[in-house]
Design a protein that fits this description.
Layout lengths: L1 E3 L5 H7 L4 E2 L2 H6 L4 H7 L9 E10 L2 E11 L5 E8 L10 H20 L4 E7 L4 H7 L3 E11 L13 E3 L5 H11 L2 H6 L20 E6 L7 E7 L4 E6 L6 H20 L8 E6 L5 H7 L3 E12 L12 H5 L14
Parallel strand pairs: 5-6, 11-12
Antiparallel strand pairs: 1-3, 2-5, 3-4, 4-5, 6-13, 7-12, 7-13, 8-9, 9-10, 10-11
Length: about 350
């Protein structure tokens, strides 16, 4: 049985919350939430913060099976991310059929629930080579990108000013940023992230805390050729670079430096203390890794991104009855309606 979280499930979730798998790395590193607290503050699925928690309980012979999954809707976008799923699958080469059954049931239920609320995609991020990969594929998730997460122990002390050619990102940049995303992102990834359906819009970063991010665009000679966004979290900051792998090494270093300047400006204003900085380099952005290492970033984790499309358009030609096809087409007499 799978149902939305209720107060009667409090002890079940409390007992499992330390034994689960994190499936959204950005939130976990920058603004971690206790799954139990999130469930208690969002008692109605998808309302408020957009969090939904579903609980599974079942009996299999003499054993009791239990688990829960938690998702968060992305603001103003028809998609959600799987935040947490418990209990976690065991590491190693062996597979646990009972736990995989729990994962299959919860993930299938997530897809149906999300589709019922008009959401078109569900995303999940897992460790590369982890046991979660087989389960995600079993229920229709597709791998669309590999990435390496890098960590900078603390943002360096840099002058918190805008460098030449940079300006703050604004609403007027939506179209230019969409074009930048299209130029710098493989078609397979664009399709996975909704570009084919026209629902991506301006590339976003801090969907889990939409008010805690800042962005700059690099606009030499009046053309947006790169962008940088930073999420300012309470446990860490997240740096996202757009189009950097299409630039020269000098220009890409400028984007990274400007992102660190944004973080330094927040620290100078007293809004954020010195915290680790994280960023992810996808497999099609490989040359960016060396530039990050030059700034002091170190490899933190290898992850893979999955997506499940919950709503797919069905195009089916209308069937023509065989009898109708044999019948002669009736003549239509055209009339001209004049004034009486």
């Amino acid at each position: 049985m799978i149902r939305p979280f209720g107060l009667t499930d409090l002890f079940l979730v409390r007992g499992l919350r330390r034994r689960g798998a994190i499936l959204t790395i950005e939130q976990a590193l920058t603004h971690p939430r206790d799954p139990l607290w999130s469930a208690l503050t969002a008692p109605w699925p998808w309302a408020g913060f957009g969090i939904a928690t579903y609980v599974l309980t079942a009996s299999s012979g003499e054993t009791e099976e239990a688990g829960f999954v938690q998702l968060m809707k992305r603001p103003a976008r028809p998609e959600a991310d799987v935040l947490y799923l418990a209990p976690a699958l065991p590491a190693g080469t062996g597979r646990d059929a009972a736990l995989e059954t729990i994962w299959h049931g919860l993930l299938d239920h997530c897809a149906l629930a999300a589709a019922g609320h008009g959401l078109q995609r569900i995303f999940a991020s897992i460790p590369d080579g982890g046991p979660e990969e087989a389960c995600l594929k079993d229920v229709g998730f597709s791998l669309y990108a590999r990435e390496t997460v890098y960590r900078l122990a603390a943002a360096p002390l840099v002058t918190p000013i805008l460098a030449a050619g940079f300006r703050p990102q604004g609403p007027q940049d939506s179209w230019a940023l969409q074009r930048l995303y299209t130029r710098s992102t493989p078609r397979l990834v664009q399709h996975a992230e909704g570009a084919a359906s026209g629902t991506v819009g301006t590339p976003t970063l801090s969907w889990w805390e939409p008010d805690n991010w800042q962005g700059c665009v690099w606009e030499p000679a009046g053309e947006v050729r790169g962008a940088v966004q930073v999420h300012l979290g309470r446990a860490g900051h997240w740096l996202r670079l757009w189009g950097a792998h299409l630039l020269s090494p000098r220009e890409a270093r400028g984007l990274v430096e400007q992102g660190l300047r944004l973080i330094a400006a927040a620290a100078a204003a007293g809004r954020r203390k010195s915290l680790p900085v994280y960023t992810a380099v996808r497999d099609y952005e490989g040359e960016l890794a060396g530039i990050l290492i030059g700034f002091g970033f170190a490899l933190y984790a290898d992850r893979v991104r999955f997506v499940k499309h919950t709503v797919a358009p069905l195009r089916e030609a209308a069937a023509v009855p065989a009898v109708a096809a044999l019948e002669p087409t009736p003549k239509v007499v055209a009339r001209t309606v004049g004034k009486g």
